[in-house]
Design a protein that fits this description.
about 180 residues
Length: about 180
């Protein structure tokens, strides 16, 4: 009597499971993208509409904040640079956050927007929240880590980048 060993590995009942997992993987970064986009839009608008923030001195101002963290920051030279024109720096941060948030939310130049978000988070971590002890009490480091998957993956779903990519593919396929 001869016994054979089955060598095929096809299991049709796993196709549905694999397809479902692959489909979910495509959408995995969407909640992160929405959260970071909305948060950075809100942060930028909050700074732009806060008259106390956009001053070089006084309670709640960008200048006062920079002076208070100067000696405890990891990169005091970056704080010194901001202190040369604190109001200009405040507008740069606010407009940068707004641009990053919009780009991330609508998925336009999403990797570049995510890189901008990562750089803003990194600079805030190195300056404003560097002195937090323990380090995980500050929120800038987790924001930095949250931006990195979007830097790597971009916005493959529900984005202007994806729509433009599809349009380019269709246009080149037609010629």
């Amino acid at each position: 009597m001869t016994h054979g060993m089955r060598t095929d590995t096809y299991t049709p009942h796993l196709d549905d499971e694999r397809g479902r997992r692959d489909n979910l993987a495509r959408y995995a970064l969407l909640p992160l993208r929405v959260f970071l986009g909305v948060t950075f839009i809100y942060a930028g608008l909050d700074k732009l509409t806060n008259s106390a923030f956009m001053k070089s001195s006084g309670a709640g101002s960008i200048g006062e904040t920079m002076r208070s963290v100067r000696d405890s920051s990891a990169i005091p030279a970056l704080v010194d640079m901001a202190l040369k024109n604190p109001v200009g720096f405040g507008y740069a941060i606010a407009l940068g956050e707004l641009a990053v948030g919009i780009g991330t939310l609508i998925g336009l130049l999403a990797r570049l927007a995510a890189l901008g978000g990562a750089l803003i988070s990194f600079s805030l971590w190195m300056t404003v929240s560097w002195a937090n002890d323990p380090y995980y009490y500050g929120n800038d480091l987790p924001y930095l880590m949250a931006w990195l998957p979007l830097v790597l993956a971009g916005a493959p779903m529900f984005s202007l980048d994806a729509a433009l990519r599809t349009r380019r593919r269709r246009r080149t396929a037609g010629y």
